[in-house]
């Protein structure tokens, strides 16, 4: 039996060594989460007066470079309100200058749960970078092949990975888009974003708002700009639920600002990268628009 176990170990050892090597290489590879949290820690943390939370709508749609105060974008792809709250509690408790927080409420925000969606692998990323869980094997998420490409590009080629800037913003760039592109993309995006409404997310919104108000921090809840195509294709029942919740927040919390900017750029398709994400020019203009809500 001992000989058998020894043979098994010998056979598996090269594979185990390879996997551990891939894991260490991937941890050393640049990624948005690693960059964002490290930049946030060193980016004049004591002077930050404004934070932006949310999903990819805010990650690509708000560039704090154009904020009139010292600001940072803590949004990320598929980041849900419970993770916004968790990031605030883990990373933002010692921000003595913080005066304003922007909370995103997109049309899919109430129904979407990160751990239940197609990008549930991101939960492990948060477990690693927020909770310092070193037992999480990052290299197998979202899949080994994709991450091997990231390792090769980062360590063995001149290809720069797409990454956030020093303010936590990630650029989508500017591309010419046709009407047909926006229509087709809207159909795909709205189907991808359609989820059953989840009352749990409402509780996280109210919990986050209350905690911020207790600290005398100004709260701005906003729905980011969308193309009219995306809005028209989106499930009307779920859209009404979100719009009703916006009104509930207005009524319950008189001291916060609640704004629906979903139609802000309806006539400016040139500001969109796709049906529900702004491009870099759109992000600049939207960030400047949000400046009016800063103290």
Explain the overall architecture.
There is one protein chain. The chain is an alpha/beta fold. The protein has a domain at 46-117 and 164-293: 3-Layer(aba) Sandwich (Rossmann fold). The protein contains eleven helices and seven strands. A five-stranded parallel β-sheet has the order 2-1-3-4-5. A two-stranded antiparallel sheet has the order 6-7. α4 packs parallel to α8.
- Tally of separate helices: 11
| The CATH H-level homologous superfamily of the domain at 46-117 and 164-293 | SGNH hydrolase
Major sheet characteristics? 5 strands, parallel
Quote the CATH topology of the domain at 46-117 and 164-293: Rossmann fold
Percentage of β-strand residues: 5-15%
* Average pLDDT, all residues: 87
Specify Rg, calculated over alpha carbons: 21 Å
Q: Which stretches of 5+ consecutive residues score pLDDT under 50?
A: none
Q: Give helix % range.
A: 40-55%
Give the CATH level 1 class of the domain at 46-117 and 164-293. Answer: Alpha Beta
Report the end-to-end length measured between terminal Cα atoms.
72 Å
Backbone shape = globular
What's the β-strand tally?
Answer: 7
Q: Can you write the helix and strand succession as a string?
A: HHEHEHEHHHHEHHEEEH
Topology:
Layout: H1 2-28, H2 32-42, E1 50-52, H3 56-59, E2 71-73, H4 81-91, E3 100-104, H5 122-129, H6 144-156, H7 179-193, H8 199-214, E4 218-223, H9 228-233, H10 236-252, E5 257-260, E6 272-274, E7 277-278, H11 280-290
Parallel strand pairs: 1-2, 1-3, 3-4, 4-5
Antiparallel strand pairs: 6-7
Helix pairs in contact: 4-8
């Amino acid at each position: 039996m001992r000989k058998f176990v020894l043979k098994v170990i010998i056979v598996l050892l090269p594979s185990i060594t390879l996997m551990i090597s891939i894991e260490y290489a991937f941890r050393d590879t640049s990624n948005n989460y690693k960059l964002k949290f490290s930049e946030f820690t060193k980016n004049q943390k004591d002077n930050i007066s404004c934070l932006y939370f949310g999903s990819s709508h805010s990650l690509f749609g708000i560039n704090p470079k154009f904020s009139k105060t010292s600001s940072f974008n803590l949004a990320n792809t598929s980041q849900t309100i419970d993770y916004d709250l968790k990031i605030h509690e883990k990373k933002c408790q010692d921000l003595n200058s913080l005066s304003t927080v922007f909370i995103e409420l997109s049309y899919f925000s109430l129904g979407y749960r990160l751990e239940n969606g197609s990008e549930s692998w991101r939960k492990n990323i948060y477990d690693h970078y927020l909770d310092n869980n070193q037992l999480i094997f990052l290299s197998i998420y979202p899949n080994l092949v994709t991450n091997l490409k990231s390792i090769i590009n980062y360590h063995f080629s001149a290809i720069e990975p797409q990454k956030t800037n020093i303010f936590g913003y990630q650029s989508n760039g500017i591309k010419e888009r046709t009407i047909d592109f926006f229509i087709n993309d809207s159909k795909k995006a709205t189907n991808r974003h359609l989820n059953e409404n989840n009352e749990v997310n409402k509780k996280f919104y109210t919990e986050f708002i209350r905690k911020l108000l207790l600290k005398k921090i100004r709260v701005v809840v906003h729905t980011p700009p969308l193309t009219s195509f995306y809005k028209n294709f989106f499930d009307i029942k779920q859209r009404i639920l979100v719009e009703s919740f916006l009104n509930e927040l207005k009524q319950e919390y008189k001291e916060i600002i609640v704004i629906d900017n979903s139609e802000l750029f309806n006539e400016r398709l040139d500001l969109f990268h796709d049906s529900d994400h702004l491009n870099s020019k759109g992000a600049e203009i939207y960030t400047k628009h949000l400046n009016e809500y800063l103290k």
